[in-house]
């Protein structure tokens, strides 16, 4: 159900912790709703059309999210908005159930949050918790690390550094899962 | 034109810009079919996008984008089956691979005119082909190498790509 390529893609483009958790929430809601709708429609759809129908459902949900995000979180939309439709790659299959989806979503969202947190802290020396959401919440929270000789290392914010970090992160994820390939 | 072609080819190649080709393709034919499908659907989407922008209907672009990719991929899939009479490629694979590449085209093509967009599409698809073949052979080579079990598969490929992108980024 969850396409690893999408997760990797998001890990490459996300540079702040705030963007990571906003995207994770949107991802979680979309996947949950699309699985729920597909479970309801399961009886009426032939299995070979599952992919097409679930893509269209996710497409509609993403469009609604885009409208919401562009109006209320414009800064986030400017940075990540183009890539929101990538969620359409996570399609429904017959074995997916809501319980399974929630478990795998939580695993991957955890992976996204941890890697982006490391990326931001090491790469920029700051931790952004509330910046794009200021318009909604009225608060702003950006913490920066004290000056030192090691951090920030700009490589980790670049695509190449992200790829290396994601590779190592996935390997650790594999090890925790029990030496199975992702 | 030449500047745009070379520029976009090298930009997407050198920084492995939008994570193209991260989906490891199982066969060489899949890479070619994905590229053709992306090229055709990118072009159609460019024209549709223009119409949508003129009529203030940009909200529909995602849905139309998927429908176009689904139809183009279906057409190519049927054509492939008729010509080669083989079933080594799945329809879903073509769609999924095309959308990865197509998303970035969707975001970019509003700034370009038709000719610029065509050149951009050609260079993007060629850089996708180069990268996909690179990953295909990298994957094949790494399968036979002694690698830690947790690193086998995608993690080691990503690390290799990261190192490769540091080297290419220097140019």
Count the E strands of chain B: 0
Shape of chain A: globular
- For the secondary structure, the number of strands of chain A is 2
Helical stretch tally of chain B: 6
Q: Which range does the strand content of chain A fall in?
A: under 5%
Structural class computed from helices and strand pairing of chain B: mainly alpha
Radius of gyration of chain A: 18 Å
Q: Round the mean pLDDT of chain B to the nearest integer and report it.
A: 72
How do the helices and strands line up, and which of them pair or pack?
The complex is a heterodimer of chains A (182) and B (171).
Chain A: H1 4-13, H2 17-41, H3 50-72, H4 74-80, H5 98-124, E1 126-130, H6 134-137, E2 141-144, H7 159-177
Antiparallel strand pairs in A: 1-2
Chain B: H1 2-14, H2 28-54, H3 61-84, H4 91-108, H5 114-143, H6 154-169
Question: Can you walk through the features of this model?
Answer:
The complex is a heterodimer of chains A (182) and B (171). Chain A is built from 7 helices and 2 strands, in the order αααααβαβα. In chain A, helix 1 packs across helix 7, helix 2 packs antiparallel against helix 5 and helix 3 packs across helix 4. The model of chain A has no long low-confidence stretch (mean pLDDT 83). Chain A has 182 residues and is mainly alpha-helical. The radius of gyration of chain A is 18 Å and the shape is globular. Chain A has a two-stranded antiparallel ribbon with strand order 1-2. By secondary structure, chain B is an all-alpha fold. Helix content of chain B is 75%, strand content 0%. Chain B has 6 helices and no strands. Chain B is globular and about 55 Å long. The two termini of chain B are 21 Å apart. About 5% of the residues of chain B have low confidence. Chains A and B meet through helix 1, helix 3 and helix 7 of A and helix 3, helix 4 and helix 6 of B.
């Amino acid at each position: 159900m969850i396409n690893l390529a999408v997760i990797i893609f998001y890990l490459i483009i996300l540079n702040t912790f705030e963007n990571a958790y906003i995207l994770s929430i949107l991802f979680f809601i979309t996947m949950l709703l699309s699985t729920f709708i597909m479970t309801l429609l399961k009886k009426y759809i032939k299995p070979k059309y599952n992919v097409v129908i679930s893509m269209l459902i996710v497409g509609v949900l993403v469009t609604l999210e885009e409208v919401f995000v562009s109006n209320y979180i414009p800064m986030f939309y400017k940075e990540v908005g183009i890539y929101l439709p990538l969620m359409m790659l996570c399609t429904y299959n017959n074995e997916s159930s809501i319980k399974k989806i929630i478990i795998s979503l939580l695993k991957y969202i955890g992976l996204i949050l941890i890697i982006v947190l490391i990326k931001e802290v090491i790469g920029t020396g700051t931790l952004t918790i509330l910046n794009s959401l200021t318009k909604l919440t009225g608060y702003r929270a950006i913490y920066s690390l004290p000056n030192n000789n090691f951090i920030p290392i700009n490589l980790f914010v670049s695509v190449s550094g992200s790829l290396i970090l994601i590779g190592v992160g996935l390997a650790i994820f594999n090890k925790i899962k029990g030496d199975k390939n992702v | 034109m030449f500047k745009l072609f070379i520029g976009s080819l090298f930009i997407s190649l050198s920084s492995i810009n939008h994570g193209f080709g991260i989906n490891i393709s199982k066969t060489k034919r899949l890479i070619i079919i994905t590229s053709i499908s992306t090229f055709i659907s990118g072009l159609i989407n460019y024209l549709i996008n223009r119409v949508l922008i003129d009529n203030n209907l940009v909200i529909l672009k995602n849905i139309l984008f998927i429908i176009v990719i689904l139809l183009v991929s279906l057409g190519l899939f049927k054509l492939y089956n008729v010509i080669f009479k083989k079933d080594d490629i799945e329809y879903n694979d073509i769609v999924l691979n095309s959308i990865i590449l197509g998303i970035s085209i969707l975001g970019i093509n509003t700034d370009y005119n038709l000719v610029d967009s065509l050149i951009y599409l050609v260079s993007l698809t060629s850089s996708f082909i180069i990268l996909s073949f690179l990953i295909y052979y990298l994957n094949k080579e790494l399968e036979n190498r002694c690698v830690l079990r947790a690193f086998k598969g995608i993690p080691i490929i990503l690390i290799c790509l990261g190192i490769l992108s540091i080297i290419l980024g220097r140019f």
